[in-house]
Amino acid sequence: MSQLSFFSAESVPPAVADLTGLLAAPGQVVVVGQGARLSVVVDRLWRAEALAEMITEAGLQPEIARTDENTPLIRTSVDPRLVPIAGDWTRGAVKTVPPQWLPGPRELRAWTLASGTPEADRYLLGLDPHAPDTHSPLASAMMRVGIAPTLIGTRGSHPALRISGRRRLSRLVENVGEPPGAVEAFEQWPRL
Question: For position 93, what pLDDT does the model report?
Answer without folding.
Answer: 85
